Amino acid sequence: MRAAFDAADAKPLDVAALTNIEPDRWWSLRFDLHPSLHLLTLSTNAQAIYKALVDKADPPVPTELGAPQGWQIWRQELTTRFRSAVAGEDRALQLVREDATFEGLCEALCEWYPEEEVPARAASMLKGWVSEGLIVAVR
Fold first, then answer.
1. Which of the four pLDDT bands, split at 50, 70 and 90, describes residue 20?
2. What is the pLDDT of residue 87?
3. Of 46, 84, 88, 123, which is most buried by a Cβ count within 10 Å?
4. What is the CATH number of the domain that holds 71?
5. Contact 128, 84 (CB under 8 A)
């Protein structure tokens, strides 16, 4: 949380910037992530414990999760935020960080979703990332 708060600042991309992109360019697009974004995979309920402590409530007993859970931690203006990832989202963000194209991101999402659903899922993730201030540039 501290690393996200102390990270370099960058102006998030506006959703309108995506609406002006020609359809035939989408497959080759690359995106730059906000410098404050951290990707974390937890195999315990550490997030629930943290949230309880922040809320000044009794924390739950530490336990292992049935499956690892991806989390995103970032800063929006002066507020540090975190949320769990939906299926494939943590891998998709890692690919974006590695400079994958939108096409590469879609190919990876085929592991979690039927092929015919992938473009809409990828676009929905991207719109969410832009809305949350996670994307700072499109190339």
1. confident
2. 82
3. 88
4. 3.90.930
5. no
Statement: residue 6 has pLDDT above 90: yes
What is the arrangement of strands in the sheet containing 64-76, beginning at the earlier edge strand? 38-44, 64-76, 79-84
Of the chain, the percentage scoring pLDDT greater than 70 comes to 100
What is the model's pLDDT at position 19? 87
Say which residues have a Cβ less than 8 Å from residue 22's Cβ, sequence separation at least 6. Answer: none
Q: Which residues pair with 79 in a beta bridge?
A: 76
- The DSSP annotation for 16-47 comes to HHHHTS-GGGGGG--EEE-TT-EEEEEEESHH
Tell me the two tokens of residue 49.
Answer: 């414990």
Q: What DSSP element (H or E) covers 39?
A: strand 38-44
If 0-12 CB within 10 Å is exposed, 13-18 middle and 19+ buried, where does residue 106 land?
buried
- Number of separate domains in the chain: 1
Q: What is the sign, positive or negative, of the torsion defined by CA atoms of 60, 64, 67, 73? A: positive
| Contact (Cβ atoms closer than 8 angstroms) between residue 37 and residue 4 | yes
